[in-house]
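Hello,

Following up on my earlier ticket. Below are the two sequence lines again, exactly as submitted.
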Amino acid sequence: MNNPTRSAPAPIVRFAPSPTGYLHIGGARTALFNWLYARGRGGKMLLRIEDTDRERNNPAAVAAILDGLKWLELDWDGEAVSQFGRAQRHRQVAEELLANGHAYKCWLTPQELERMREEAQAEKRPLTIRSMWRDRDGSGAPEGVPYVIRLKAPREGETVVDDLVQGRVVFANKELDDLIILRSDGNPTYNLAVVVDDHDMKISHVIRGVDHLTNSARQTQIYEAMGWAVPKFAHVPLIHGPDGAKLSKRHGALGIEAYREMGYLPAALRNYLVRLGWSHGNDEIMSNSQMLDWFDVTDINRSAARFDFAKLEDLNGHYIRTSDDQELLKRIEDLLPFLPDGAKIVERLDSDTRARLLLAMPGLKERAKTIIELVHGADFLFADRPLPLDEKAEKLLDPEGRQRLTELLPKLEASSRWSAGELEEIVRTFAEATGAKLGKVAQPLRAALTGKSISPPVFDVMAVLGREEALGRIRDQAA
RNA sequence: GGUCCCUUCGUCUAUCGGUUAGGACGCGAGAUUUUCAAUCUUGAAAGACGGGUUCGACUCCCGUAGGGACCGCCA
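Thanks for your patience. The regenerated structure is below:
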């Protein structure tokens, strides 16, 4: 954040998702890395929507991505830039490249290209597109046939991507095609648009997934053709599924909103994601300011990491336990609309039950790994008398258990303050007097009060439910 | 197939040539306990393989194997 030892100029980074779908978990981590790098060094975090492909553009996806970032509490500077909105400027640069001899018009048709690919495939030789139009200067061009503009990429030597994560990656120029920078319909392609935008937006560090590594080599050629400074690159490894294969819908490549709906906290998800491919010694749980202080792209690992829900859950449990009760209540209320049985609870959430929920929170949050578990733990608060009993509760309320409740009832009715402490004393005294182990009394009591065999401590449950409700539930089950 | 990248406990990782290879999750055992958690103690668990370089390699180099990314007028 305000680390005085950092004297380098403040970086300008960008997160540049394409609006073809939701914000997936890998994208979320890339955004987080960008955000940490910018915010940790007093830099800027810009947002750009890569929507040059009009056919695949989806406004709902843009909204979902922005929502996901907001939920993750990652902010950005200024308005999100639409790449499509800058098409004029991209075309202008393409013309400039044409004029300065670094690009050429190519009349190769998609059909011809397809045939070249098939032939290469059949002969099992590598395919590198070598357009015959490269050096013809447009002579012999067919009439009225649309053309594309290709970069006249160097054929000799090598193009180097000096990557902050991957190291120095060298590509032989003879392996690289003359990439298309302007489509036959006059629209810019991704690689051109990205270079122009990154240059115009004065991006100092391009932090993105390794799937873009070869693009960086191509983009470097465009920078060089324009005589522009190449930004620093940091290509972060991809996230894999539990089986080591690329993360797909089958595993966990869900939209970020799915994680919210599964009851994860943004802080937990951030902490989990930052430790995937990056670490700071043995530190596992870290605050935002620690992350901001410690994070550096040069410490990111080169190998892909597998997504592990068990560890995410553990972290989430930690963040729930250390969260403020009031905040948890808000998280619950935010999540309720997305839960199958949430509407029922929303209905009952008046100021009284809200207060009870808050009162129960310390006991509840100790046992929940997700917000959903937190809600289920609070089920007993919203139950109607007579309570439905689950199988184990049923067993606890055998004749012996019910008999105990009957005997205990008058003692509880005589309680003066109905506090957890007083109630515990009453029950303990009762247990001792009857020579029963505390559990023999507490378990039937729990079953009667919650309908379950597991719950927060029974005395807390009684206090939270209040005298009238608690006694009523016990009477329902007493012999 | 071509190019490029990767490879330490099951998983995430530490180690920047010299360590009994450490931590976390998960798993096992124990303590605590009114249940379940939480918490504490504790156990099992790793340098893919083969060559070098070096007094000494998990660490540097080469090869093999395995995995991955990219190879669109998609981004």
